[in-house]
Design goal:
CATH architecture: 3 Solenoid
Oligomer: single chain
Number of helices: 2
Distance between the termini: 84 Å
Order of helices and strands: HEHEEEEEEEEEEEEEEEEEEE
């Protein structure tokens, strides 16, 4: 009888552990993002070298980790979709922007190190771009190739919305369409954009610009160039 009670107690303890794990809130689980190396400091930045690592990083930001005060570098070119197939956009996996809503913006420093991100396809209802919302963050030395993004709101090649941000030395070869659309940034608030070039077509239902679609507060663009077609009714 005593042995039976011990076994029953152990069994109930296991069941309790399983149930308690099952009801933990989602926020208790850290996203499974894996960097190639680095600690996130300026001298030892996180390094991204693969598509999986890049998507995991995006998921981490969208789960609430803004990477404020942390540094992320590309260590290789990243291809999100195979652009070698004709009409590849019809079969592309849609990308959820880094910082997909204003509640989960990117706040860190992302350095492309001259590497490229290719084949980004984004169809978003809130903000379309490589980055959706940047708040106090910085993006630099990045090339965006063969990409398409559309949004029912703001859209930009590098970022849909940037607030108190910095965009430096970026090039975009993306087709951008939205309400407020820019080749580099859709909506800029108190943001600095410098030494950046847009080569892609831009279409905006309300506002469109080769570099920025809509500018407010103390934003400025310096040494930027647009070589893409811009359309706004």
């Amino acid at each position: 009888m005593k042995r039976f009670c011990i076994k029953l107690t152990a069994f109930l303890a296991c069941i309790s552990l399983i149930l308690s794990s099952a009801i933990l809130p989602a926020a208790a689980f850290e996203p499974d993002f894996v960097f190639d190396s680095g600690s996130g400091s300026a001298s030892d930045p996180y390094i991204i070298k693969t598509r999986r690592q890049f998507l995991s990083f995006a998921e981490a930001v969208n789960s609430g980790r803004g990477f404020e005060g942390e540094h992320i570098n590309l260590g290789a070119d990243i291809e999100l979709n195979d652009v070698g197939t004709e009409n590849w956009q019809l079969y592309a996996e849609s990308f959820v922007p880094i910082g997909s809503c204003s509640d989960t913006p990117f706040k860190g420093v992302f350095d492309g190190k001259g590497f490229s991100i290719r084949g980004l396809f984004c169809d978003s209802s809130e903000g379309g771009g490589l980055f959706g919302f940047i708040n106090g963050g910085e993006v630099k030395n990045l090339i965006l190739l063969d990409s398409f993004m559309s949004s029912e709101g703001a859209a930009g090649g590098i970022a849909a919305v940037a607030v108190r941000g910095k965009i430096t030395n970026c090039k975009s070869f993306a087709s951008v369409s939205g309400i407020n659309s820019g080749g580099i940034v859709g909506i800029a608030e108190n943001t600095e954009i410098s030494s950046s070039v847009n080569y892609g077509g831009v279409s905006g239902a309300e506002n469109a610009g080769g570099i920025v679609g809509s500018v407010s507060l103390e934003s400025k663009a310096d040494k930027c160039l647009n070589l893409g077609a811009v359309y706004s009714p």
